[in-house]
Amino acid sequence: MTDDRDRDQAPPDEPDPLLEELRRIASIVDPVPERTIEAGQAAFAWRTFDAEFAALVHDSLAAAPAGVRGDEEPPLLLTFESEDLLVEVKVTRTGAERTLVGQLTATDDGPGRVAGVEVVTEHANGPTVVESDQRGRFVAAGIAAGPVRLRCRPPRPAPEVVTDWVTL
Amino acid sequence: MTEGTGMVELVRRARQGDQLAWNQIVARYSGLIWAVTRTYRLTGTQADDVAQTCWLRLVEHLDRIRDPEHVGAWLATTARRESLRLLRAAAREAPPPDDLSMPMPDAEVESPELLAILSDQATRLWQAFKELPGHCYRLLRALLASPPPSYAEVAAGLDMPIGSIGPTRMRCLGLLRRRLEAADAPGHPAESRD
After folding, report:
1. Inter-chain contact A7–B162, Cβ cutoff 8 Å?
2. How far is B106 from chain A (nearest CA, A)?
3. Which of A64, B88, B107, B146 is the most exposed, having the fewest neighbouring CB atoms within 10 Å of its CB?
4. Which of A5, A6, A24, A41 to mutate to test the interface with B (most CBs of B within 10 A)?
5. For residue B170, is pLDDT > 70?
6. Based on the number of CB atoms within 10 Å of its own CB, is B194 exposed (0-12), middle (13-18) or buried (19 or more)?
7. What is the CATH architecture assignment of A49-65+73-167?
8. Domains, chain B, with CATH or none
9. Residues 6+ apart with CB under 8 A from A12
């Protein structure tokens, strides 16, 4: 968000009758669907407490230029990082389904354990629960296209780690 | 500003778990997110996914947002980034979408029944609007969000300098007016109506 409050709050231009007529038409022919608003309201129930947050720190789609295609499809790679845990995920797409191949790594200064972690993928047809192997690897298949996040639950007392949401 | 102060209060209440305050935030900014997805020519399903990701992210970021009065710009930025991610992902599977500077054919998002209830004049206006050059269509479509967005929110949604929005808006509305007038002028082919 910008810190330039003066410009942010500069008064907008005078209302224009043509623009207002277009706004009226847009609200008739292209309104926000009711389902979209209801889903936005329902999002509030997904708020998590007492979990460590893993921010999206790398996204190969954010780095790629739009609309450019190579001969080989580059893999979609996401990296989430919390205080204790690094979550790297490779995403493959088949129609409306996604498969996540992941790797958990304890960060240098964190006590996170990576083996036997319950990895819960939250998605439209979820949740999908899998467990990481001895080397911190996991595979979650049958993930629905749309908003997705991971909850990583290591054996106690290590804290649960919840990643940011991302559209897959 | 009253708007910003009101939003600060709504975010504060939402942080405390107030669903009704959250619903008001959703009501205030769903139109902005929708308009941003429209400027990137997303399909309805893609637009829904982007909107949902925006709201889910905001839920988790409620406690971390430093400037609650800028939550609209934060949402517009998130909607822009997620829209571009989806376009890039789709480009890997299908032919890339036409250049974003081209006008948007959005027949798939407008139902014919809804278009049918418009007056002839409104229909001509909407058609002329959709035939504007891409940069005009995108800016005006973002400005058409309901309730009307701030320029800061539009700048965030389109990734364009806030200072260029006013002048571009003026030029694009001028172009639209000239085209409508030309279409109404006697002897112009566009005057003949089916």
Report:
1. yes
2. 10
3. B107
4. A41
5. yes
6. exposed
7. Sandwich (2.60)
8. 2-191 (1.10.1740.10)
9. B148, B150, B151, B166
- For the stretch B99-113, pLDDT in tens is 554 444 454 456 666
Angstrom distances, CA of residue B155 to CA of A152, B61, B139, B170: 36, 21, 9, 16
Q: What are phi and psi of B35, to 5 degrees?
A: -65, -40
Distance in Å, alpha carbon of A7 to nearest chain B alpha carbon: 8
ipTM score for this prediction: 0.84
Residue spans of the domains in chain A: they are: 49-65+73-167
Q: For B55, which residue in chain A has the nearest alpha carbon? A: A40
Of the ranges A50-59, A61-70, A87-96, A140-149, which one carries the lowest mean pLDDT score?
A61-70
Q: What is the pLDDT of residues B45-84, one digit of tens each?
A: 899 999 999 999 999 999 888 888 899 999 999 999 999 9
pLDDT in tens, A42-55: 999 999 888 999 99
DSSP per residue, B47-71: HHHHHHHHHHHHHHHTTT-S-GGGH
Q: Which residue has the tokens 């926000």?
A: A32
Cα separation, B91 vs B89, in Å, equals 5
- Which residue's structure tokens are 């200072």? B163
A157 cis-preceded (ω within 30 degrees of 0)? yes
Q: Which two tokens stand for residue A155?
A: 């054996």
CB burial class (10 A; 0-12, 13-18, 19+) of residue B152? buried
> Whole-model pTM?
0.85
Note whether A36 contacts B34, CB cutoff 8 Å: yes
B8 Cα to chain A: minimum distance (Å): 14
B/e letters for B46-81, b = 16+ CB within 10 Å, e = fewer, are bbbbbbbbbbbbbbbbbeeeebbbbbbbbbbbbbbb
For chain B, what percentages of helix, strand and coil (3-state, to nearest 5) are there?
Answer: 75, 0, 25
